[in-house]
Amino acid sequence: MSTPPLPLFSGTTRLCKGLAVVLLSVHVLINFFPSALNYLALIPAWTIPFAWNLITAGYVEQSVYGVVVSTLSLLFIGKLLEPVWGSREFIKFIFVVNFLTSVCVFITAIALYYITRQENYLYMPLSGFHGVIFGFLVGIKQIIPDQELPFLKIKAKWLPSMTLLLSFAVCFWTIEATTYLPTIVSGTYISWIYLRYWQMKPETKLRGDPSEDFAFSTFFPEFLRPFIDPIASIFHRLFCGRSDTSDDGQDYTLGSEPLPGSDSIEASRRRERGARALEERLAAERLAAAARTAEENV
After folding, report:
1. Range of the domain at 255
2. What tens digit of pLDDT does each residue of 115-151 get?
3. Which domain of life is it from (predicted)?
4. Residue 122 located in a structural domain
5. Whole-angstrom Cα distance, residue 144 to residue 148?
6. Global pTM exceeds 0.90
């Protein structure tokens, strides 16, 4: 009798497995050929003319710890998000978040160099899939915000905020961890912008998620939201102001007023799909565990 798959990998999609192979393969490549890191990682001083590293850097994990965490996170979270979004939207999300995160990290490194005049900001190889992983956490917050996470006893809507806070805390103990912060913060914010304003919903032909439960201030405790909302509105008008109007009628808003019930209905549908996908995954894992237990008892 064949051994049933491990619960962690049951239900994992081919796309997630393929991306996991890419992460593992690139990690092996840079270990056998260290010079490849100079061409694949983001080195701000060499980004021009090596502009392709804005894309490739996100798939380069330099440490064993990094590749293990990124691969397991991709397999586990990906099997929740991909069925809800669809394979095409899932890979599009990864590409956009990865690329724009690299752009933000590049700009941050150049700015830090001009501020400090320290050349290590220009020549330090920066890379990793953690920007996209934190983007996945934002996706979890969107589709199953009120789902309580096993073992952690916190709701999914607080997952991005808690992991960001933990990342900042780690930096006080390990100075090397600060190199990850620009990627983590950028990945979180870019993914929120993408899901909030840009993601196309095939079933409604509308873009984004204008629901109040997914506003930027919901990443913060409630007592801070009156202070966060004015700041968020500035960035909204600066980067996403055009999303408030639509020439083709495909947005959620008409002028400055939302269409009646559009955000609540769409948010409800998204949560239902997310909760249903999660229930199916948990059921599959329970069945796999039960089958394995039964085989051991035979």
Report:
1. 14-267
2. 998 988 899 999 999 999 999 999 998 888 888 777 6
3. Eukaryota
4. yes
5. 9
6. no
Nearest to 133 by CA among 287, 16, 8: 16
**Cα–Cα distance measured from residue 86 to residue 207, given in angstroms and rounded to the nearest whole number:** 15
Query: Is position 147 within any domain?
Result: yes
Query: Phi/psi at 212 (nearest 5 deg)?
Result: -65, -30
Give strand pairing partners of 201.
206
What's the CA gap between 176 and 187, in Å, rounded? 19
The answer to whether residue 206 is domain-embedded is yes
Q: Which of 144, 183, 143, 145 is nearest to 164 (CA)?
A: 183
Question: What span, in angstroms and rounded, lies between the C-alpha atoms of 41 and 60?
Answer: 6
> Considering just the CA atoms, what is the radius of gyration of the chain in Å?
21
CATH number at residue 64: 1.20.1540.10
**Residue 66 forms part of a structural domain:** yes
